[in-house]
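FW: tagging you since you asked about this chain on Friday. Here's the raw sequence from the shared folder, copied in full. Didn't touch anything.
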Amino acid sequence: MRDRRSPGRWYLYVCCMLALSAMLSAMLPAIAAALTVQDDDFNAIELPAPANRIVSLSPGATAMLFAAGAGDRVVGTSAYSDEPAAAKRIERIGDAQSFDLERILTLRPDVVVVWTGGTPAAEVARLQGVGLRIYHQHVKRLDDIPDSLRRLGALTGTSPEAQAAAAQLAQRIVALRSRYPQKSAATVLIQVWDRPIYTVGRDQVITDVIHACGFRNAFEDLNDVSPAVTLESVLARDPDYILALGSNQNEAQSWLQQWHQFASMKAQRPGHTIAWSDPRLPTLGPGVVDAAEDLCRALQAVDPPRP
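HL: got it, structure written out here
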């Protein structure tokens, strides 16, 4: 016998399904807005939408965000974030080593960009401890710069601008490497401090710049980013050149003066010591490519390519 209540049950079932469909439709925009991106250390960062308010804790990351088309998203940054000029107007919340956590919280950032190898782990832990999302910016080689720009474009929803800037920088890097042949025997001591003597190791962008210029880092076999080396080890390796990277030209020149007492070094030949000061090199932003082009020209001027 036919159940006369069936139409009522079916009607109720259809109504419930329609209500569920409407609810799911309402949720779709929020689901579509959810975003998962990878930072330069390949950590997954989850956001409900592209980052709109960003605190950057390094000058290089700030410059990279501007190059990626997201400069207007940066609400706080670190000291010495002077590239490009517009970055100078952003509120300072400390430097790469220490910062005002309370001030960062008042800025309500969607994400905080830290500098791997520069921002101390304890400071990163403080940020994580209050629930802030952390994005690691990390550049070790010239080719990392375009890749980092693309990731920042994904983070901020500015991929078209970031992709265009990345493509342009990648072309310049390829052109730079093809311009200068590798001088397999020519080594350079890259000096970044004098007492003790500090240089740079393998995983440092300046080592890659030296390669692009056609030379080799005399201490590129070392794993540390900025290792201290002894005077005896420098004399034993007897580099062809000494490149003093000071915070200013006077500082760099003073370091080179100290090497004059070692007259038998190959680097004491005329023109084989170079004092250099360029704030774009240590910041690890897109300006590194400009700095690399300038440095290569300077190095080739003292030892031009051989026929």
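FW: Residues 6-33 form the longest helix (28 residues).
HL: agreed, and Residues 1-6, 10-18, 24-33 have pLDDT under 50 and may be disordered.
FW: great, closing this out.
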